[in-house]
Every structure is written in structure tokens, then in C-alpha cells.
Amino acid sequence: MARAIARSSALVSTQVLQKGRDHLRNLLEPHTNQISSLHIVLFVNPFDTPDLLLNDLPALQELTITASDPMWCTPSFAQCISRLPFTLRRFRVTGPSTFDFERIVSCNPVWAHLTHVEIAICQPSLIHQLLQLGPNLSSLEIGLGFYDEVSSTYEPFAHMNLQSLCISNAYLIRMGIPDLFNSLTLPNLRILEARYIRPWPHEELKSFLARSSCPLESLIFGTGVTTTDEQREEYIMLIPFLDVVVDHGRGDYFGYRRLTQQYGIGRRRYV
Q1: pLDDT, tens digit, for every residue of 174-207?
Q2: What is d(CA 72, CA 107) in angstroms, rounded to the nearest whole number?
Q3: By the 8 A CB rule, do 62 and 88 touch?
Q4: What's 99's DSSP letter?
Q5: What 3-state DSSP class applies to 252?
Q6: pTM of the entire structure?
Q7: Are 117 and 70 in contact, with CB atoms under 8 Å apart?
Q8: Alpha-carbon distances, residue 174 vs 30, 146, 164, 229 (angstroms)
């Protein structure tokens, strides 16, 4: 595992943490006022001292957390995330974990000043919650984890700043996705990408596009989305200069493939 502290970025793994609190404190303290980008790789779970990593970072703009344990976001970790500085703009979490309602609320008010979020959630309806808590979001990448088949109420909601939305589904059903399209209005959306959503909610998307009147530039269908030529032509009729892309090579579920390749997390070896 590479471990580096640079002038403006830091990569810290829990292999470093095993050397002790004093070692980590000595490693980070000279740079805390300069670190704008922090990537934490968690191999040790539960990790009960997040304050060592997330306190006193006044220049932090980007935070990435890579975790092997779905339960990495303990109450103490969520509390530290909630206290991150207003300079933070980008928040990414990769690995086999999903945010439920309680985790999202526990991390508040960090969402309010973020412009890019990339996390997995356990219910499609939580997209509404994230958009409500993050009025400044311009880019949202969502992984839908394995969730219970429970009905949710989707109230009409408009988000004025979101420009890019990517939804990757881990389930083989589309539960909640049609309701999501029926309830959302995104008047500034420019990029929409979908993966692993079956069957594809064609009529709901058309209604969403017509209602939003958004300047959509790219509509991207990745692996697990099946559309017909006629359906794609209908989208172009709604938005004449729309670039409709069918790319089944875009099949990485929410960074998990990159995670296993880069760090070996979740990789099973046969001997």
C-alpha cells in the first residue's frame, strides 16, 4: 500500500494507523493546513478514531473513503464527517457499503456545501433526501445497493443546480426508479447516465425530460439497460441535439471493480 503526504493531497491507509495514534499525528500535523485532497483507505474495521484523520483540515476540498467493511460509517465517523469544513466540495465513498437514512442524517450538515457526491444508498427515495440536503450539488453519482422491496412516497421536488446524474443499480429490478423520474424536476440537467436498470422506464423518462425542460446534452445507457432504436429516437425528438450513447462497457458498479483491482478489497483468490 502506497502511503504519501504531499503538499496538497494525502493518502492514508489503516496499515499506517496500526503504528499508533502518535505516529499518525506526527505524519499529518505538519500538513493539515495544506491538505486539500484526502483519500482514506480502511482495512481495519471498526475504525474507532476517525478524529485523527478528519479534524483540523481547514483547506480540505475533496474527501474519498475506500472501505472494505459495509459498516465502516460508525456514529463517531459520521459525526466527524458532519464537522468537516465548508471548503469541502467533493465527497466519494467506494466499497461494499450503502448509506441509509440514518447515516445520511448523521453526516449532515456536510451535504449543504458539497458540489459533487458519489455514494451508494439503500433506497432510491434517498436520492430525494440528498438533493434536499444538498442544494449546491451539481454532480451526483448514486449506486443503489441491495434494498428491501418497500414502497416509498415520492413527493414532487425540483433541484435547480444539478447538472449531472448517474444511477447504477445493483439489483435486477427497477423498483422506485419510475417513481423517481415521475417526481423529480431537474431544469439544469446536462448529463444523465444509467446502468443496470431493468426494465427501462421509457415513458417515465420522457415525462421527466418534458417536465424538466432541461438542456440535456448526453443520455448514456451503460451495461444492464436495454432500449430500442425507436425509444432513443423519441428522446431525440424531445431534445433535437441530444447525444444518445449506448455503451455497455460502462459496467463498473460504483467503483467496486476499480476497488478490487487497486486494493484487492473484496477479491476472492482460488488456489
Answers
A1: 568 899 999 999 999 999 999 988 889 999 999 9
A2: 13
A3: yes
A4: B
A5: coil
A6: 0.86
A7: no
A8: 49, 12, 20, 21
